[in-house]
C-alpha cells in the first residue's frame, strides 16, 4: 500500500519545459524545517544554487535573481537553449568562484 501523499501537479500540460525562457523555481526543505536559518546550511544552499550552471548537464542555465529564506530558496533561472540529450557530449563550462546572494 502506498502511504505517500499525492502531490498536486502544477505543471502546465500544454507547456514544453525545454523552451528557452525564464523559470521561477522554489526549493523547500524537508518538512519545511527552518534549516537555512543556520549560517552553515544557508551557505551550503547558496553554494549549491550557484554551482548549478557549472554542472555538465546544466550548462544551458544562467542564474538570475535568487534568495535563500529560512526554509526554502526562490530563484529565477534562464534556460538559454533547449537541453542537449543526455547521450550527447557537452562542453563543460569553466569553473568560477563567484557567489552572489541577496542575503
Radius of gyration: 16 Å
Give the mean pLDDT. Answer: 84
What is the number of strand segments? 3
The geometry reads as globular
Order of helices and strands: EHEE
Distance linking N and C termini: 44 Å
Count up the helices: 1
Percent range of helical residues: 10-25%
Largest sheet: 3 strands, antiparallel
Strand content: 15-25%
Task: Name the descriptors.
single chain, 103 residues, alpha+beta, 3-stranded antiparallel β-sheet, 1 helix, 13% helix, disordered C terminus
Strand and helix layout:
Blueprint: E1 22-28, H1 39-51, E2 61-68, E3 72-79
Antiparallel strand pairs: 1-3, 2-3
Describe this structure as you would to a colleague.
With 103 residues, the protein is α+β, with helices and mostly antiparallel strands. Helices cover 13% and strands 22% of the residues. It has one helix at residues 39-51, and strands at residues 22-28, 61-68, 72-79. Strands 1-3-2 form a 3-stranded antiparallel beta sheet, covered by helices on one side. The radius of gyration is 16 Å and the shape is globular. Residues 97-103 have low confidence and may be disordered.
Amino acid at each position: 500500500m502506498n502511504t505517500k501523499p499525492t502531490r498536486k501537479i502544477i505543471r502546465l500540460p500544454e507547456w514544453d519545459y525545454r523552451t528557452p525562457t525564464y523559470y521561477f523555481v522554489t526549493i523547500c526543505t524537508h518538512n519545511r524545517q527552518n534549516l537555512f536559518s543556520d549560517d552553515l546550511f544557508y551557505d551550503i544552499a547558496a553554494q549549491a544554487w550557484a554551482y548549478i550552471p557549472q554542472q555538465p548537464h546544466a550548462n544551458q542555465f544562467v542564474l538570475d535573481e535568487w534568495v535563500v529564506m529560512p526554509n526554502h530558496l526562490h530563484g529565477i533561472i534562464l534556460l538559454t537553449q533547449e537541453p542537449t540529450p543526455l547521450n550527447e557530449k557537452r562542453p563543460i563550462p569553466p569553473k568560477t568562484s563567484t557567489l552572489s546572494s541577496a542575503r
